[in-house]
Design a protein that fits this description.
This protein is of the alpha/beta class. The chain folds into two domains: about 15-250, Aspartate Aminotransferase, domain 2; about 255-379, Aspartate Aminotransferase, domain 1 (Alpha-Beta Complex). The chain has helices at about 15-25, 30-45, 55-65, 85-90, 135-145, 205-210, 220, 240-255, 255-280, 305-315, 335-340, 345-355, 365-379; strands spanning about 50-55, 75-80, 95-100, 100, 105-110, 120-125, 150-155, 160-165, 170, 180, 195-200, 300, 355. The strands form four sheets. It has a seven-stranded mixed sheet, sandwiched between helices. Strand 2, helix 4 and strand 3 (about 95-100) form a beta-alpha-beta unit. Helix 1 packs antiparallel against helix 8 (about 240-255), helix 2 runs parallel beside helix 8 (about 240-255) and helix 3 (about 55-65) packs parallel to helix 4 (about 85-90). The mean pLDDT is about 95. The protein binds pyridoxal-5'-phosphate.
Length: about 375
């Protein structure tokens, strides 16, 4: 028997809704399922406006266009993230300034951001790694003081929250000027490829719709606001087909069931390893008091690269796939020559030592326990 790292899943109505979209007679974008999904997100989480996209990568590229990144502008991004977080801004000619991770969590070390701000800085892009919030009070205060935009990379952060100093609990993705989510098959809620741009600053809403629809005012035309539509700005084709949105909507109907199941698995991993973690010299995920856990990921921070390889091998011998995560972007093939000498010590530790355990809707509690038993006996 093998246990993959991830597995796509159906929750009930996915296939029926795809059939319905086809029989309804529209499978291109911005139809009834797109609207159902967008309405769901806006009313459940409080985003001012949402637009489904074909990926989080697309949403990030829209965000870079919207905040008006021009060649030479600087954008502060954690090095420990997926390529798209930085690539979307690099496409517009931005100079990427990579920040280190926190010592206790792979998210951006908020205390280092201010020292990276210059006259050319235009935006900060925090990534809520594993769906756990960055300290958004610190980031928003810096953005205010230096007049910067904040684009949340909330790819992993659906249904997760941040409680600020004011005691208000806010959904991740509602705090920055813009936010980007992913529904890639490896995330909590899936549609194969899929994503969403959330717009919290009203100034961006109108232009976002135009950029989304290939630089045209077609969305306004379909609402009857203009009598013909045409080319009004730059843009691209960022909207998903109704087939994708229909699949996504079926998942959204079951979001609490999905989240409960993932949280139960996450807690099983945590409980079964807690007692042994310090003996094994592994660190378990930390969730700060201001954040919630959406059980996007269960990871270990191993003591050494060698220990991580040992655990991967022991699991693989039993047919179980555990995987490491990002290779720091500042030391990537594309970027290492551009980064300079500034060391990002914590980022490098996560690159070498972080290990993700299988986590998906259909994983059984008994499998999670079996996995932790193998880890305990490896060392
Ligand atoms: C998954 C992910 C992305 C990319 O999402 P796509 O929908 O695959 O484009 C970007 N940033 C982070 C942090 C991610 O985890």
């Amino acid at each position: 028997m093998t246990i993959p790292f991830n597995k796509p899943f159906l929750t009930g109505n996915e296939i029926d809704y795809i059939n319905d979209a086809i029989h309804f007679g529209k499978i291109s974008g911005n139809g009834k399922y797109t609207k159902k999904c967008q309405d769901f997100f806006e009313s459940k989480y409080g985003f001012k406006k949402t637009l489904l996209t074909t990926s989080c990568t697309d949403a990030l590229e829209m965000a870079a266009l919207l905040v008006g990144i021009e060649p030479g502008d600087e954008v502060i991004i954690p090095s420990y993230t997926f390529v798209s977080t930085a690539n979307a801004f690099a496409l517009r000619g931005a100079k990427i300034i990579f920040a280190d991770s926190r010592p206790d969590h792979p998210g951006i070390d908020e205390s280092t951001i201010e020292s990276l701000i210059t006259k050319k800085t235009k935006a900060i892009v925090p990534v809520h790694y594993a769906g756990v919030a960055c300290d958004m009070d610190i980031i928003m205060e810096l953005a205010d003081r230096y007049n910067l935009f904040v684009v949340e990379d909330a790819a992993q952060a659906i249904d997760s929250f941040y409680t600020g100093k004011d005691g208000v609990k806010r959904a991740l993705g509602t705090i920055g000027h813009l936010s980007c989510f992913s529904f890639h098959e490896t995330k909590n809620i899936i549609s194969g490829e899929g994503g969403m741009l959330a717009i919290n600053d009203e100034r961006f809403i109108k232009r976002a719709e135009i950029i989304w629809e290939k630089g045209t005012d077609r969305a306004a035309f379909f609402r009857g606001e203009v009598d013909k539509y045409g080319w009004v700005d730059i843009g691209s084709s960022f909207l998903p087909s109704e087939i994708t949105s229909a699949f996504l909507y079926a998942q959204l109907e079951n979001i609490s069931k999905i989240q409960q199941k993932r949280l139960a698995l996450w807690n099983t991993y945590d409980q079964s390893l807690k007692e042994y973690a310090s003996n094994l010299k592994i660190r378990l995920p930390k969730v700060p008091d201001f954040a919630t856990n959406n059980a996007h990921m269960f990871y270990l921070v191993c003591d050494t690269l060698n220990q991580r390889s040992q655990i991967i091998k022991a699991l693989k011998d039993e047919g179980i796939l555990a995987v490491f995560h990002y290779i720091s972007l500042h030391s990537s093939k594309y970027f290492s020559g551009k980064h300079g000498e500034r060391r990002l010590i914590n980022t490098d530790i996560y690159s070498d030592c972080l290990l993700r355990l299988p986590m998906y809707y259909e994983l059984k509690e008994s499998d999670a326990i079996r996995i932790t038993n193998i880890i305990r006996h490896t060392l």
